Amino acid sequence: MSTLVSSWAKKVQAVPASYIQPKEKRPEDTAAPVCKDIPVVDLARVEGHDRYEVVQTIMKASQDFGIFQVINHGIPGELMNDTMSLFKEFFDMEAEEKAVYYSEDKTKSFRLYANPYSPKASKVDSWRDTLHHSCHPLEEKIQSWPEKPARYREVVGTYVLEVKNLSLRILDLICEGLGIELGYFGDELSKTQQFVVNHYPPCPDPSLVLGINGHYDSQILTLLQQEAYGLQIFNDGKWVGVEPLPDAFLIGINDQLEIISNGKLKSTFHRAVTNTSIARTSLASSIGPSWESIIELAKALVSESNPKLFKPISSKDYFDIYMAAAGGSKVSALETLKL
Ligand SMILES: O=C(O)CCC(=O)C(=O)O
Ligand SMILES: [Fe+2]
Predict the structure, then answer these.
(1) Total domain count, the chain
(2) CA of 175: how far to CAs of 41, 65, 95, 222, 257, in Å?
(3) Residues surrounding ion ligand 2 at CB below 5 Å
């Protein structure tokens, strides 16, 4: 059997054994209701009198949920649709055509792979295929991206630049909320960008599998475009769904932003479930620091009443700790840095 789920999922009637989660990890509720309290922030409002209120909403959502959604964010709907359609077309290609891009070599700046957490952490395969793009520096990395479907590099190159700009705008609103200078994240702390496309084919029994295991995102900020239900966050002791809004971006706080904000903004434990009827594709862009950056509470926020909660650490060292801990555990790798 080929390792790419999208190459064989349509042909099977039952879930192959290696994809069946142990009982305690199976998604009891693959249709957990969407949590209506997760704010949808209208970014058009930041230009006017409502700016303060918008910033406060973002801060509160980042504390309570670790995520929020944004609309009227300035990225054209047409570009979002084109990008989503292009990846649908990519995953619809024949198995042999996709196989060309398949690689288990993690140092590659572009690759298609399956089941990224195995075998180190969870021994169970995930019901998804993943396309990974390193985006920095873009002019260089783009040369390793596919040329099929037509306009791949042009569409995806434009998309990742737009998404990076939006990430920086949101990080500036977070600076306002935290009380640190604008542009704080503009240089080394946002030097890298990884763009990941997750593809979850329909599954004969979604109650047995996970599309993506519960995890925290390790970088600074994730922007996610999702077209259908599947994302769940662990909030208040239970899994809740996140409403798919096709024109919105979902913004997720990542671990290293939790360190920089001294735990004021929370990285959230999340997973994706599958369904029986449609292939779900999600586009996730993560902004992160250069490897050498030292991640610690922003200096302007250190005070007697706000001492550092986490040990300073280089971004590279944090990533190593994160990878060693990854494996569906709700205990965050950040725990090891607590002072
Ligand atoms: O597909 C999703 O909604 C979640 C994807 C995700 O969590 C990730 O790529 O880190
Ligand atoms: Fe994630």
Answers:
(1) 1
(2) 17, 18, 46, 16, 11
(3) 217
